[in-house]
Amino acid sequence: MGKPIFLIGYMGSGKTTIGRKLANKMNLPFIDLDDEIVKQIGMPIAQYFTSNGEANFRALERQFLQELNLEEAIVSTGGGTPCFYDNIQWINENGISLYLKMTPKSLWDRLSKSDIKKRPILKGLTGASLLQFIETKLDEREPFYNQAHIVFDKLDRNLEEIINLIEAQQKALHT
Asked: pLDDT (tens digit, 9 = 90+) per residue, 150-166?
């Protein structure tokens, strides 16, 4: 039985979109960690963040991560998931991690077009202030993201190439 493949990266990097496509192409279940949390807590993450604070959310996120059924699946994590507690070590010990790396400018382009209300950490940020926030947060988080088994930094996101990298990593872990 294979291990789960954890997609990590900054918000807006395409973890959910790529994750769904990979799961479909590889015939694996898809799990969005944020969606699982929302189902259990019965409210949007933005609302939980506001009422309970980031520290409580990160503790809840860690609990959900570690309670995952560790069968072979594609798992999309939240942008901050690998950056708190020992989550990146846990992810690497229990699966294969794939960092979907993007430049701050590329992330800014994507996030500027998204629904910022669904992203509590970006509340009230636009234009240059949003770009500066992304640059600062990415600098903080990259040391965690870069611990991934696979760092994929191509913007064209060729699924076949990603699958080949995952399969090579799976073989490397079994030898």
From this structure: 999 977 778 999 999 99
Integer Cα distance of 89 and 85 in angstroms: 9
Architecture in CATH of 5-102+142-173: 3-Layer(aba) Sandwich (3.40)
Residues 6+ apart with CB under 8 A from 60: 37, 41, 48
**Separation of CA 45 from chain center:** 15
Please state, in angstroms and rounded to a whole number, the distance separating the CA atoms of residues 97 and 82.
Answer: 10
Structure tokens at 121: 């950490």
| Strand, helix or coil for residue 137 | helix
Closest CA to 166 of 7, 12, 17: 7
Closest residue by Cα to residue 122 from 106, 141, 105, 137 = 137
How many Cα atoms are found within 13 Å in the side-chain-facing hemisphere of 65?
Answer: 30
Coil/strand/helix, residue 82: helix
| Mean pLDDT, residues 59-85 taken together | 94
